[in-house]
Design brief:
The protein contains seven helices and no strands. It is mostly helical. The chain has a single domain, classed as Cytochrome c-like domain (Cytochrome Bc1 Complex, Chain D, domain 2, Orthogonal Bundle). The chain is globular. The structure holds heme C (HEC). The site of heme C has 28 residues, from helix 2, helix 4, helix 5 and helix 6.
Length: 125
């Protein structure tokens, strides 16, 4: 696992390759409502400390986020926020715009990140 992560990181030679390949946009079709419902529960328990859909709180308002970022970017942000704000130019900028608060979510899994994405896709549909 660590070896794989190293391979992924080493394989990209920095700059713009911070993103792990977690999902392809082509895997996404209509909204999976069951998955979105799971994502809603997750959003309420793990994200609402810092986020609302409509308004900026500690973190940015998340309504419309699936229109401005790719599905893979969003999943990377949810799973690896610290790597993203350290290396990804957009995430870095967002952090600067949010009083330098680092997004952290304890105990988030890839399945959680996928469910969160579906909830956000549903909110934007
Ligand atoms: C401790 C507060 C905090 C928690 C908890 C948190 N976030 Fe964030 N989030 C932020 C901040 C602050 C930013 C802006 C980047 C930064 O400063 O790290 C952000 C940025 C984002 C972005 C990028 C928004 C954009 O405009 O591109 C997404 C997507 C996101 N968060 C989703 C989530 C989801 C989904 C959860 C729950 C699973 C979550 N966040 C939990 C604080 C938080």
């Amino acid at each position: 696992m660590t070896f794989l992560a190293l391979l992924i990181l080493a394989g990209c030679g920095g700059g713009g390759h911070t993103l792990e390949n977690l999902i392809e946009a082509s895997e996404l079709n209509g909204i999976d409502t069951a998955l979105a419902a799971k994502g809603k529960v997750l959003f309420e328990t793990k994200c609402m400390t810092c986020h609302r859909l409509e308004t900026k709180v500690i973190g940015p308002a998340l309504q419309g986020v699936t229109k401005r970022r790719s599905p893979n970017w969003i999943m990377n942000m949810v799973l690896y926020p610290e790597r993203m704000t350290a290396n990804d130019p957009v995430a870095k900028q967002l952090k600067a715009e949010h009083n330098d608060v680092q997004m952290v979510i304890p105990g988030v899994t890839k399945a959680d990140a996928r469910a969160a994405l579906e909830f956000l896709r549903q909110a934007d549909s």
